[in-house]
UniProtKB/TrEMBL annotation:
Highest rank taxon of the organism: Bacteria
Alphabetical list of SUPFAM superfamilies matching this protein: 3-carboxy-cis,cis-mucoante lactonizing enzyme
Protein name in UniProt: DUF4221 domain-containing protein
Source species taxonomy: Bacteria, Pseudomonadati, Bacteroidota, Cytophagia, Cytophagales
Species this chain originates from: Algoriphagus taiwanensis
Length: 375
């Protein structure tokens, strides 16, 4: 059954899938996504990086090379722009992470790693033992995490490894465990045999996305509907793979030669967008992708038509349990963009409103306050 959107007008909106089955609510794995409230931050600019923890958030704006910190009322606490040269230069810290001790770290999309003071002023650059070979880092996906007193990063380039090589994911360690005090790093985790990228076949180049809860690391390649689990206590030992079995997830399959780029030129692959491990289950959001016929007929290769993508695919939320059981699929309305601060299924979290999709230009940024509720 295809999931559908239910919209209740009034003080709240309700987003959910329908089900004809009657279940005991205490055992139900059917969920709905509720819009509880919203906040406005008095800032005119895009959100190109975002983190939220313990009642405050921080966003990055690419155009101004600026960080801005705010609280749950929308009040701006601190804001700071950074120069591109000099001793306090900072280059595009799109990846942001509040550590357990309250320190804020940022990493650029091509690897530079920084620590900031509590007022967002520059504190230091953390020098790593080698230069990354990535020219696009992890994009805007989640590739900077904390485990105990270490930072875990996607930072390819150890021993000159080329992340654009078709067998990079098969032949190399995938993440680095970094000591932020010294910059020392050691490689961790390999792709498991459950992933097609462990083979000698050619596929579309994927993007990395991962999260950590306790001593378990949850790792995805965005064009495979799988979540790989690793034990950080055993230096990233592989544990298992969970398949979240989306009802629709377009895939252009095996390629005949290396360096073919089919997704985005002939069709659009399904892609994992975000991953949130919680004690009650793993939340994954993804886009379904667009078939070749629809992609070609609507000239979606043309950049001017990129804004049309949401008309032909849904963005979906699903909850995965460690025993492999799966929730219903919840269609996320297109006005909801990137989510942040989702650490528990019983607590509210935030998401950026997509003003561009709505066709509205505001002089403030709106964050929706959302909650997942069991049906």
């Amino acid at each position: 059954m295809r999931p559908i959107l239910v919209l209740i007008l009034g003080s709240i909106f309700l987003f959910s899938c329908t089900s004809n089955e009657k279940k005991d609510l205490s055992e139900s794995n059917e969920w709905e996504l509720i819009l509880v409230d919203s906040i406005q931050v008095d800032y005119l600019g895009r959100v190109d990086g975002l983190e939220f923890k313990d009642g405050k958030g921080v966003l990055f704006n690419f155009k101004e090379n600026k960080l801005l910190e705010f609280d749950e009322s929308g009040k701006i606490l601190h804001e700071q722009s950074y120069p591109f040269d000099g001793p306090e230069k900072v280059f595009y810290p799109v990846q942001l992470k509040y550590a357990e001790d309250g320190n804020l770290y940022g990493a650029s999309f091509i690897g530079w790693l920084y620590e900031f003071n509590s007022d967002l002023t520059f504190k230091r650059e953390i020098k790593l033992p080698f230069l990354t070979e990535a020219k696009d880092g992890g994009g805007l996906r989640r590739v900077l995490e904390e485990w105990r007193d270490k930072l875990i990063m996607y930072y390819p380039g150890r021993d000159g490894a080329n992340p654009y090589d078709p067998f990079f994911f098969r032949d190399h360690f995938l993440l680095e465990k970094v000591d932020p005090k010294t910059g020392d790093a050691e490689p961790i985790i390999r792709i498991p045999s459950t992933s097609r990228y462990s083979s000698d076949k050619f596929y579309e180049r994927p993007w990395v996305n991962f999260g950590i809860l306790g001593d378990t690391l949850y790792f995805t390649l965005d064009n495979e509907p799988m979540i790989h689990l690793y034990d950080m206590n055993q230096n990233g030992k592989y544990l298992s793979t969970l398949n979240f079995q989306p009802s629709r997830f377009e895939d252009n399959g095996e390629h005949t030669e290396k360096y073919q780029y089919i997704s985005g030129t002939q069709m659009l692959d399904g892609r994992i967008k975000q991953l949130f491990p919680t004690m009650e289950g793993i939340v994954v959001t993804f886009e379904e992708g667009i078939t070749e016929d629809v992609f070609v007929q609507n000239e979606l290769k043309d950049p001017k038509n990129f804004p049309l993508y949401p008309q032909f695919q849904n963005q979906v939320l699903k909850i995965v349990q460690l025993d492999g059981s799966l929730s219903n699929e919840i269609i996320i309305p297109n006005q909801i963009d990137r989510m942040v601060g989702l650490t528990s299924l019983s607590e509210p979290f935030y998401a950026v409103r997509d003003d561009e999709w709505l066709g509205e230009e505001q002089d403030y940024i709106t964050f929706y306050k959302l909650k997942l509720v069991r049906k």
